[in-house]
Design a protein that fits this description.
The protein is mostly helical and 672 residues long. It has 36 helices and no strands. Keywords: Cell cycle, Cell division, Mitosis, Repeat, TPR repeat, Ubl conjugation pathway.
Length: 672
């Protein structure tokens, strides 16, 4: 870590707080406290003085008092600034150049002259009297004062737009999202500025106006000039369109080449909707390095990201809560994990702990909603999810989870409305598109369901569930070829020992009279079940060795001659048991018990065996011995398919006998 990182974070806390970016200030302060105490102590002596600090230079503040700034030479300033600024290579973002010395000096003088007005404006903004703040800052010209005036004017206009939007609630004139007509005028106020905070506002306004490419450019320029503004990073994450764009952006930087190494990790965390739920090895390596003693070993944000994206979430979150038991950020995501794992006790404990702390936080409402949902009290869950959306209209998880609850209650129309709200908030969230597909599928509108599933798979190309759902919709529509393609795509991300998709593919090929392909998928089901039974038998054989006290000698822990002899005896006994493997596997009870052990229905094995046997007997397969072996196993069991297997076994044996007696008659028998 560079020596000036703690000082840069301290400046970021102050600068973001001065500009009303409380979330960014909180993030920087938490990151500052996550640095090793020894590194923080070494920086205490270099803290800036309590005097005036200018925020105009596009770099972290100097450890010295900012009043010494004017005594430096232009060459010295330019060299130091160019060393501090590390731009992000992007086709839309040219390299930022520091402003000339005279411009920075004039800016500093303006801030000193307008200091009283700036403090007054900040006080008005903190009191949420945005119009008064605009009034008192109307004649100021410094970059900081202009930022505060424009930002307060934006907040006031947003408040009015939200009021007008709610006034038209439940009417046909209500737009999908609130419309702020003041955005064009606000954009003009910062359009030609190169101040990093003005560029942040410019990116915000451009994104709201759906000018995404220009917003990305402005956000990158702002980050290049001031890398510790967390709000700029989150805004950039909202601008990015897909995973390819993220990869291009991430690959253009060396993660640990500069003091902004933590910032290079931010884009990946802001675009999780493009990626798999588990992070890549490179992301895990970067996360672990950033959590090392050299960087931010106690970063709560990094711990949370590691927990949610790289597994072992419960243990990681307990460690995080031990450091800060009152941290509400990410508690909603953790509640989703507890919900999926059906950890009722921990979820109930969290709900009862956090609800008294801050009942008006949307994250807490989401946590309590998940608690009631897991208990099956869907009406109460919807009440809390709706409360979360009232507190924050853009709170995506609450809209999506509310839609899930309506689906559970079979209220498809209400679910569709909730999912549409989620899509309006963020069109890149695959869960909302997937939920819309499920809701329309419940209504039997498969054409609409396929449309929404296609959007979901575009955002989540390796999600097995979505491809299966899309394939089943195509099957209901009679478009079997498209259904087969969807099921094949589902196999790309499925467990190698999965059998449900193979059985569905086999049935689809059979409906298309493609019997060879159908038999191949059925044979895969048989192979998986048989392999599982072999694993179970070998495990049983090793257990038998352990029971006679010879297990330890098979682990190469022996040292004496006697130990060698006992080890050889153990291996011999193991081989004797292994020789019996084929005869043991011919018992249907053993195979069926193994199917149950590995969560594979025994009926699937029996059904696939019947289909493979029919293929070899009636549809041109020709391997009668294999068909006979399969039917002998089924006929000797207590499955529901015993009658069919017995009848088919008789016919197979007759064909085999006829083939041995007169091979030319076999072809006629196969066509019967």
């Amino acid at each position: 870590m560079e020596e000036d990182v703690p000082a840069a974070l301290r400046n970021a806390v102050r600068d973001c707080s001065d500009r009303g970016l409380s979330v960014a200030a909180k993030w920087a302060s938490e990151l500052l406290l996550s640095i090793s105490p020894s590194k923080l102590k070494s920086q205490v002596g270099g803290l800036p003085s309590a005097g005036f600090h200018t925020s105009t230079p596009a770099r972290p503040h100097s450890p010295r008092s900012s009043m010494a700034f004017a005594t430096r030479t232009p060459a010295h300033e330019t060299a130091q600034s160019s060393n501090q600024i590390q731009t992000v290579s992007h086709p839309h973002a040219p390299r930022m150049q520091p402003p000339p010395l005279e411009v920075r000096t004039r800016e500093m003088q303006l801030e000193i002259q307008e200091a009283d007005h700036i403090v007054t404006g900040q006080a008005m903004m903190n009191a949420k009297e945005y119009t008064r703040a605009v009034h008192w800052l109307r004649d100021c010209q410094s970059a900081k004062a202009v930022y505060l005036r424009v930002y307060c004017e934006f907040l006031a206009s947003e408040k009015k737009a939200m009021r007008d939007w709610y006034r038209m609630n439940n009417t046909r004139h209500q737009p999908q999202v609130p419309v702020n007509p003041a955005l064009f005028d606000l954009l003009q106020a910062v359009h030609n500025s190169t101040d990093p905070w003005h560029l942040f506002l410019k990116a915000l306004f451009l994104l709201r106006l759906s000018r995404r490419e220009e917003a990305i450019e402005s956000a990158l320029l702002s980050i290049a000039a001031y890398p510790w503004n967390w709000s700029a990073w989150t805004l950039l994450g909202e601008c990015l369109g897909d995973g390819e764009e993220v990869t291009t952006l991430s690959s253009s930087t060396d993660p640990f080449a500069t003091d902004t190494s933590i910032s290079t990790y931010v884009p990946d965390q802001n675009i999780q909707q493009f990626e798999q739920p588990n992070g890549t090895d490179a992301e895990l390596s970067m996360c672990d390095k950033l959590l090392g003693e050299e960087y931010f070993p106690r970063s709560l944000w990094l711990m949370a990201q590691r927990a949610f994206r790289f597994g072992n979430a419960e243990a990681q979150f307990k460690k995080l809560r031990a450091i800060d038991p009152y941290r509400i950020d990410d508690i909603d995501v953790y509640s989703n994990i507890l919900y999926v794992s059906e950890n009722r006790l921990e979820l109930s404990k969290l709900a009862h702990e956090f609800l008294p702390l801050e009942k008006d936080r949307p994250e807490i409402c989401c946590l309590v909603g998940n608690h009631y949902s897991l208990r099956g009290e869907h009406e109460k869950a919807i009440k809390y999810f709706r409360r979360a959306t009232q507190l924050d209209r853009t709170y995506l998880s609450a809209w999506t989870l509310m839609g899930h609850e309506y689906v559970e209650m079979k209220n498809s129309h209400a679910a569709i409305e909730a999912y549409r709200k989620a899509v309006d908030v963020n069109r890149k969230d695959f869960r909302a598109w997937y939920g819309l597909g499920q809701a329309y599928e419940l209504l039997g509108m498969h054409q609409y369901a396929v449309y929404y599933y296609q959007h979901a798979t575009a955002l989540r190309p390796y999600d097995v569930r979505i491809w299966q759902a899309q394939g089943m919709c195509y099957e209901e529509m009679g478009r079997l070829r498209e259904a087969i393609e969807c099921m094949k795509r589902a196999l790309l991300g499925a467990d190698p020992r999965e059998i449900t998709i193979h059985i569905r593919l086999a049935r689809l090929h059979a409906d298309l009279e493609e019997f060879m392909e159908s038999a191949a998928y059925h044979q895969r089901v048989i192979d998986v079940c048989t392999e599982d039974s072999e694993l179970a038998y070998l495990s049983l054989s090793y257990s038998s060795i352990s029971l006679v006290g010879l297990g330890p000698f098979t682990s190469h822990g022996y040292t004496s001659v006697a130990d060698h002899i006992l080890a050889l005896l153990a291996i011999e006994l193991y081989l004797v048991l292994l020789i019996q493997l084929p005869s043991n596997l011919t018992t249907m009870s053993f195979i069926l018990s193994c199917c149950a052990r590995y969560n594979k229905p025994p009926s699937d094995y029996a059904y696939s065996s019947l289909c493979v046997a029919r293929y070899h007997l009636l549809q041109g397969g020709g391997d009668f011995l294999h068909a006979r072996d399969l039917m002998e196993v089924i006929a000797g069991s207590q499955c529901a398919e015993v009658g069919q297997a017995t009848e088919l076994l008789k016919r197979i044996k007759m064909v085999i006998m006829t083939q041995r007696a007169n091979p030319t008659v076999v072809g006629a028998e196969e066509r019967k």
